[in-house]
Amino acid sequence: MSDLPSSNDPSLTKSSLNLDNATVSEESAKLRMGESRDKGRGPRDAGTYKFWKTQPVPQFNEDGKGRGGPIKKVNLDEVPKERYPLLDGFEWGTIDPEDKKEVGELYELLSNHYVEDDDSNFRLNYSPVFLKWALTAPGWQKQWHIGVRASASQKLVAFISGLPTNINIHTQTIKVIEINFLCIHKRLRSKRLAPLLIKEITRRCYIQGIYQAIYTAAAVLPTPVASCRYYHRALDWLKLYDSGFSHLPANTTKARQVAKYHLPSTTQTPGLRLMQAGDLEAVRELLEQYLQRFDISPAFSIDELRHWLFLEAGQGKEGGKQVVWAYVVEDLETQKITDFVSFYSIESAVLSHSQSDVIRTAYLYYYAAHRTQNLQQRLQGLINDALILAKKARFDVFNALRLQDNDLFLEKLHFGCGDGQLNYYLFNYRVEPVVIEDESACLDGQRPGGMGVIML
Ligand SMILES: CC(C)(COP(=O)(O)OP(=O)(O)OC[C@H]1O[C@@H](n2cnc3c(N)ncnc32)[C@H](O)[C@@H]1OP(=O)(O)O)[C@@H](O)C(=O)NCCC(=O)NCCS
């Protein structure tokens, strides 16, 4: 069954509910081995990665067993002091995410040139409020939000961002830069500008004492540490159908599709309410404990969590635009916070329709449940409530990756499996690939296992 269109970006991909978990796991394993040919997006021969074969990343089919940790010790004397030279007519710049005009310039670049589906029917459209939020987490520095400008016009034509943070890899906590929003103007593609942006941000990080990075891409590069499918859950199936985002599967009717995705109008979990600033410490504790279940997970500081749940601005809103929704479950007897769930918003422009036509997508963000005994039941209830809340907030579709404990609810809650992979990468760090686990592994109290990091 095919609900959503095929795409370069797995978050926009076709939903084919019947791709079973075994097939998905096998495909993930092939990717790590450099074998998959997933819709032409599989890895090429190792030698053809002209840039990536020169970088401190694990190469395909490398026997990295038992050799975890940094790949290269960085010698600062060998790190260039000057910026890498650019093509003639272009110059380096930065984007200050607190400057409205500069955020506007970034919005302009991304809204016209960022990730599209394979047929160029949809393009991710991060709002200016979202971009400001995504680029100003604690520790941010303007020098890591790197732009390239055309010298004559000063037009922004390329961008890459970095945010410092800590992640847990098994028992180690390491400082990394989180790389995002790599984008090059369509007219400047295939000119090897991406390697330059990557080398320049690497240089700036090395100078500041950050030697590792985490990043995600639909592209298969050497070598994913984890590969996760996107799953999609229609909230307004008719809207998705009318915009060409969803197809009508064979052997069914529109009315049956609408009925299939129907949700109750009120949430079901007793004690579920909007998260407030006063819940922050309890949520941090809950999340920290919960995330220990995974091989790789974020190590949030309280300030980072406050930022990512957008509590400074009061429930995720700025200028009337909300980017994050966060809810807690408060035990009505003990007043303890027992569960937490959040999601964030990204729109996709419908390119084949009028300019203003958009698909509003909620992305499952972090969640945690205290009562791991009835984890499956607990999470199914919690995420179903998140679907109800997202529908009320007028989202059209709800996306989730196949990571964390999501296998415990995806199928049951009518999420459809997309046909693309989102690959996770670590730069200058070798670790055994994370196995994306199925339902039984999620229920295994003996975890850790699986991927616990969500990137915007
Ligand atoms: C991704 C994008 C920046 C690549 O730019 P490009 O002009 O096609 O590629 P360039 O000629 O500059 O560089 C090619 C190199 O970059 C690598 N590359 C391509 N996409 C990459 C990515 N997402 N992350 C890291 N490296 C990437 C290629 O593998 C190649 O290196 P190789 O020779 O080792 O294989 C550009 O296609 C783009 O802006 N796409 C739309 C937005 C997007 O998809 N961004 C990535 C989000 S993860």
Automatic annotation (TrEMBL):
Keywords: Acyltransferase, Transferase. One of its GO terms (cellular component) is cytoplasm. Residues 1-73 are annotated as: Disordered. It comes from the Eukaryota. It catalyses: N-terminal glycyl-[protein] + tetradecanoyl-CoA = N-tetradecanoylglycyl-[protein] + CoA + H(+). The keyword Acyltransferase applies. It is an enzyme of class 2 (transferase). Its EC number is 2.3.1.97. Residues 73-228 form the Glycylpeptide N-tetradecanoyltransferase N-terminal domain. Residues 27-44 have a biased composition (Basic and acidic residues). It holds the Pfam family NMT_C. One of its GO terms (molecular function) is glycylpeptide N-tetradecanoyltransferase activity. Belongs to the NMT family. Adds a myristoyl group to the N-terminal glycine residue of certain cellular proteins. This is Glycylpeptide N-tetradecanoyltransferase.
